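so the lab meeting is tmrw and i was supposed to have these ready like two days ago... anyway. pasting both below. for each one the top line is the aa sequence and the line under it is the C-alpha cells. i havent really looked at them closely yet so no promises
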Amino acid sequence: MGKWTRRAVLSAGVIGGTGLIVGVALRPGNPTEAAGHLVAGDGEHLLHVFLKISDDNRVTAILPHSEMGQGAQTALTQMLAEELDADWDQIDFEEAPAAPEYANYAFGRGYLFKGMDLPDLVAPSIDGLVLKIADSMGIQITGGSMSIRVTGQWGMRIAGAAVREMLVKTAATVWGVPASEIRAANSQLFHDASGRQAPYAEFAAAAAKTTPSATPKLKDPKSFSIIGQSKPRRDIPSKVDGSATFAMDVKRPGMVYAAVRRSPVFGGQLKRVDDSAARAIPGVIDVVTLSSAGSTDQEYPTGDFVAVVASSYWIAERGIKALDIDWDGLGNETVSSNGIFEQFDRDITAGIDREFDLETGDIAAGFASAKTVISADYTVPFLAHTCMEPLNATAEVSGNSAEVWVGCQNPLGFRQELAAALKMELDQVTLNNHFMGGGFGRRAITDNALQAAYIARAVGKPVQLVWSREEDVRQDFYRPAVQSRFKAGLDDNGKLVAWQNTYVDKHEPVEAPIIPYAAESFDIGHVSSPTHVPFGAWRSVDHSQHGFFTESFIDEVAHAAGQDPFAYRAELLKGKPRHLAVLKKAADEADWGRPLEPGRGRGISLQESFGSLVAQVVEVTISGGKPWVDRVVAVIDAGYAVSPDGISAQIESGIIYGLSAALYGDILIENGAVKQSNFHDYDAVRMHDAPVIQTHIINSGAELGGAGEPGTPGIAPALANAIFDATGRRIRALPIMNVDFGAPTEASPQLT
C-alpha cells in the first residue's frame, strides 16, 4: 500500500461514505469479544481495550507499543494511571498482542485531529475511521517518538479517564447517589456523604458492560500526581536479574539454529552455491537456499539468501563461512561512495525536477540586495543502526499455521507480512513480541522474521535465526548519505535576508530542513538522486542530517555577520519565545561566554523535531590530534515531562547515539557493497570518551513532544561548531574521524 497522507485519509472517509458509519461499531473504546479473549483471563474484566481490572483490584494497562529500552511502557502506564486515579503500587502493564484491535488508531487520531475538540457524536466515527486505516496498514508501530505524545495523550489518558467515569457511573447506580458526589482515588471509590467506600474491582464487572466515552474529561495538569513524577522503570528489575525475556532467550522443543548470507551487493541474485564443504561439518543439518531467479509465482521480500541450519548457532556460522557462493550484482558491482557523492553533486547542480519545501519572499531580490553572500556544501555518509542485540527471530511453521518469536517495532505489521509471505490467513499466524536490545528504526523491518519463517518451513523444525554482527552491518537498511547545498545573503547589519538550500532526496519528517530563524526570503527544496543502497528510518530520520546541515551553516552565517553564534540565533528568534527560552536556558546553564583555555572550544545548536525543542552546548578539547568532547549541556522543552528521569535518559541516549555517528559513523560503499563489518571498523562512543551530559527540562505547557529522537540531531552541529571555535576549522563532512587536525586549517566559507 502506498503512503497515506492527511488529505488521502480524510478523502477516504468522505468518499467511502459508509466508512465513518461502520467505524462506530469498531470504535477503539469498545472492548470487543476478540480483544477480551486475547488479553483478559479468569477474574479479569476488560473495561477498555487498553485497561483491565482484576478481582483483587489490580489494574493492568495494555500497551500497543514495544519496549526497546526507552521506558515508554512505564511512561504510558503513568498516563493511564493518572487519569484513572489508580494506586500506582497496584498497577501493572503488559504489551498488547499483535492484533487488529491494537492497531495504533491513536497515531491517526493524534496526527489528523490533534487540537480538535471532537464532540461525543463525532468522536466515535472518527476513531473508527482511523482504526480501520491503521488496521489495514498494519500499524502497531513504536517509532517517531510518538508513543507518549500520541498514544499516551490520545489513547492512555483517554482510556484512564473514560474507565474512571464508567466506574463512577456504575457505583452511582448501585449506591443510588448522584455520580457527581462520588470521588475516585488510589483505585477506590468514595461517597463521603454516606461514608461508603469500595475498590474499583467491586464495580468492574458491571462497568465492563457499559461503553466508554471517547471524549471523557481529562485532568488539569495542575492536579497531576503521577504524570510528571520519575517513577521507577517497571522493566528494569527483570533486566538486571536476568529474568527478562528477549527473543534470543526463546527455546522450543527440537529447535535448531540458522545463520544466513545475502548478496553483498544490495538486491543481487543468487547464481550458484556449492554447499558440500558446509554439509561436511558435523552438526550441520541442512542448507536452505531461496532464489528469485526464474521465479514467477512468488515475490521474496527478504531478497535471495542462503541459510545453514545446524545444531548450534556457532556450527551454523561455521557452515556459512564454508559455502562457496556466486552472486549476480545486477549491474551495481561498480558503485562506490565516491561515485554516489559525485552523482549527488551533479543532480544538485542540474536541479532537474527540483521540488519546493518552502518558498517565501523574493529570493532573487534578497540576494541582489545582500551585502554579503555566503555559500557552502555539506555531506553526511550512510549510517547503520548497529543495535546491541543482533537481529534474530525464532519460527515454527507447519502446513497451515506459523508462530514467530521476535523483538520488533511493529508487531501487527510483522504478522501481516508473515501471513502474506507464507500465503496464510492472518488468524493462522501468531506473533510473539519481546523486549529489544535497541531498535532505532531497524526493528520495524521484517526481513529477519521472514527469513526465519522461510527456513523453518523448509526444514520442518523450529528454527532460531541469529544474524552475525557482520551480516547486521552489511545488510542493514541505512540512514541515507546526503549532500546539502546552502547559500545565504546578509544585509549591511548582518541581518539574514535570503536563505537558499537544495539537498538530495527527501524522507520524513517533511519539516526537517525548515529552520526556525527569521529571514526575509526562503528557498528550500530537494532533488531526487536515488541509489541502490536500501533506505531505513534511523533515529530522528531526516532530522539527523538536516540538523547537522542547518545548525552548522547558521553558525557560518553568524560568523560571516561578525556576531556571536548564540546572540545571532537569539536575534533571529525574537518572534519565537518558546525557541528562544530553550536556547537561552542552554547558554545560561553552559555559562556561554566564559573564556576557555587554548585548544578548547564551545558550540551551540537548536533543533525542533518530533514536537520538542532541544538546544545543546558542547565543550570540546583538541588533544592528540583529535577532538575530545568534555561536556554537553542539553535543554529540552517537550511540553510537559511525563517522566523527567525518562526524558533525561532518552536525551543522554540520543546524544551518545548522535555523537557516535558524528565522530565515527561511516558506511562506505565499495564495489556495490558495504566495506565495514563490525565495531572495529564501525566504531561507537565508548565509556572512556563519553562526555559529561547535563540535561535540563522546561515544562512550557505546549503540546506534548517526543524524547527518544530529539536528542540526536543537535549534537553533531554543536560539536562541529565547537571545533570551529577551538581551531578555526569548519567541519562540513562527517564523520569527524576523517578530519586531519594536523593539516593546515581549511579555508573560511566562500564569501562574495
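ok protien two:
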Amino acid sequence: MAKFRKQDALDYHSQGRPGKIEVVPTKPYSSQRDLTLAYSPGVAEPCLDIEKNPEDAYKYTSKGNLVAVISNGTAVLGLGDIGALASKPVMEGKGMLFKIYADIDVFDIEVDTKDIETFITTVKAIAPTFGGINLEDIKAPECFEIERRLKEELDIPLMHDDQHGTAIISSAALINACELAGKKLEDVKLVVNGAGASAISCAKMYEAVGVKRSNITMLDSKGVLSTERDDLDENKKYFARPSKGITTLEDAMKGADVFVGLSKGNVVNADMVRSMADRPVVFALANPDPEISYDTAIAARPDIIMATGRSDHPNQVNNVLGFPFIFRGALDVRATQINEAMKLAAAYAIAQLAKEPVPDDVNLAYDTRNLSFGPTYIIPKPIDSRLISTVAPAVAKAAMESGVARKSITDWEAYKTELNNRLGLDNKLMRGLVTKAKQNPKRVVFAEADTYKILKAAQLVREEGIAKPILLGDKTKIERLIQEHNLDLGDTTVIDPRDASQEENRLRFAEMFFQKRKRRGFTQYESKRVMQDRNYFGAMMVETGMADAMISGLTRRYGVPIKPALQCIGVQEGVNRVAGMYIMSTKQGNFFFADTTMNVDPTAQELVDITVLTAQAVRRFNIVPRIALLSYSNFGSAQGEIPEKVAEAVSILHRDYPGLIVDGEMQGNFALNNDLLKEQFPFSELVGKKVNTLIFPNLASGNISYKLMQELGNAEAIGPVLLGLRKPVHVLQLGSSVREIVNMVTISVVDAQSSKG
C-alpha cells in the first residue's frame, strides 16, 4: 500500500480548488439568450412538462445520471463515529470514483443526525432530486433498518455499499477461489470473523451463491454466534448455530475451507491457517491491517488462495469493482430498486471477467507481465476498463428480467459501445478493424522480436486470431524471453536472418535487391551485407510474398526502418511521396491527422498528394473523409507563405479531385466548429459536414498537434499509419506500448487484406 505523509494527504485535498469534485454546466451559457433558456423565463417550459408527466424529469434534467452519496458519519472507514461533517471528504471521494469509473454525477450529502426516523425522513424528502441513492458509512444495526425502510418507500435504486459492495466483490472472489481449489460451494465449511453490516451481508450473499447456511460459522467480538447465546439481535440470530464445543476463532478455523475476515487486524496467526483444510481460501479484508498478513499466510500455507483489502497484494477485494457499474446499469434501465438478482448478476459478471485474457494496460499498471486467471488473480483489477461494459449490462439485464426496470435495452452491443464511450474513448473503429482482421488474418513479420513488448503483442494477436506472427531475431534470446515471461507463442515461426539456415534466402533477397538498386549506389557485396539486417530482410519477406506485412521501429529511430521499406518495396504507382497519419480517438469521435511523421515542409503539390493518400486510407476504414486543410489563415484572411501554399493545394484538389469533400485554408477552430464555420464562412464546402480529417501545413504543426491532443485532450493516438507504400510496412513510435503495437498490427492486417501489391 502506498506510503504518504499526513501533509501530503492534506495538501491533496486543499490545494487549488478545495475538495475533489465540482459541478460543471452541460449547456451553453455565454449569451443572454443562453441564460434566458437556462433559467427565467425559458426554464418554465420543462417545469410545466414535468408537472404533467413526472417521467419527463429524466428527459429534461440530470436526474437519470445523478446519485446521492449519503452518510451520517457514524461508521467512517476505520475512524468510527466522527460525525457528518468530518465524513464529507470520504463522500466526495466516493463521488469522484462514481464519476471516473462510470461517468455518474454525484451530490454528496451529510445528514447530521443519529436518529433513524430523522435520517429516513430527510432522505425521503430529497429523493426526487436523484436517480439513485448510495448509503455510506452508517453504523450497524441502524443501517439495516434504514436501508430496509428506504427500499420499501422509494422507487429509485438504493444500496448501502458498506453492506453489499464487499458482499458482491467477495462473492465473485469466492466463486473463483473455490473453483481453483476444487471445492464445491455447497460443501465448503466457511468461517466469517465479524458480525457487522458488511459481514452479515457477505454471509447472506455467500448463501445465495451456493454456500449452505449450516456450514457458515460466524463470530463477533464475544465469540461464535451460537444458539446458546441470548445477546444476539435478529440479524445475528440468522447465522446462530449450536456451538458443538466451538466457541473461539481458533476452534472454528480447524478444518475450515474458507476464512473471511471482516473484523480487525492480526487476529489470525499462522497456526490457525495451518489448521485449515487442504487448499484453504483466506479473505483477510480488514484495513489497513488484515486479520493475518499476506506474507505470513503464504509462508504458513503455500497452497493458500488469499485475498485482502489492500492494493499492494494480489486479489484486492475493492468495492470500486462493483458499485459504479451496478448503479450505472440500474440507472440506465431506470430500475426501481437494486434487488438480489441484480447483485448476483454483478457478482457472476465480475467472476467471469477474471477468466478472460487481461489487457496489457492492466498488466503495465500493476508492473506485471502476464496476469491470468489463477490463485493470484481471482478477481479483476479495479482499473480494468472492461468492467463497465461487463458488469453494467449484467445488472441492467437482471433488472429487466426481475421486473424492476422501467426502461428496456434491446441492442446490447450498442449499449456496450455507449458505456465504453462514457470512459472517454470511442474505440468503435478499432473494434471494427479487429473484426475485419480476424476474418482473414495475415502473416506479419516482427523485425524486433527480441524484445518483451513485441513478443507480448505477437502472443496477443496470435491468440485473438488477428494475425499470424513471424519473429525475426536471435532465436536463443527470443526463446529465453518467452520462457522468462511465461509467454505462449506455440509454433510461431522464428527466423534469424544471420543464421546459416537463411543463407539461401539472403542470397535470393540480395540478388533481387541488387537488381532494384544497382543504379542507386548498391553493389552486390553491399546488397548481400544489408540482408543480414532484420529491417531489410523483413521488408524483402514482404516484397517476395513470404509475409504480408511488417512491423518495426520499437527500438530504433523512426527513419531507420523506413529506408529499407522504401528501397525494398517502393511506393504505390503514381505516388511521389509517402506520408504518416495518426488516428486520434476522442470523446467526439475519431479524427485523422496527416502528415505527422514524414514531410518537413511540403509544397502545395505535396500537400495535395498527402491529402489524396490520407483520403484513400480513411476510406479503407469505411469512413467518408471530410477534410480540412489547416493554416493560421481563413480563406485568405492573412498573407504568408503557409496560407498561400495551403490555398493553392485546395485549389488543385477542387480542380483535380471534384468528388473529394475538402476545403481550406482555415484555422483549426473553424474546421471543428461547424456552427462557427457556417456563421462566418457559409460558402465553405464543409458547412453542414462534420470534419474528420485534418491536413497540416508542415511536419511541426502536425506532430505538435497530435502529441498535445494525446497529452492534454485525453485522446488515444493510433499510429503512425505509413501511407503510400506498395505493400504494408508500419513503423512504430519509439517505445510504443503493447496496446499500441497490437493496434498497428491490426491496421497492418487490414491494410494487407486490401493491398494490391
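from a quick look at the 2nd one: The longest helix spans residues 161-181. Residues 183 and 428 are 40 Å apart (CA to CA). will dig more after coffe
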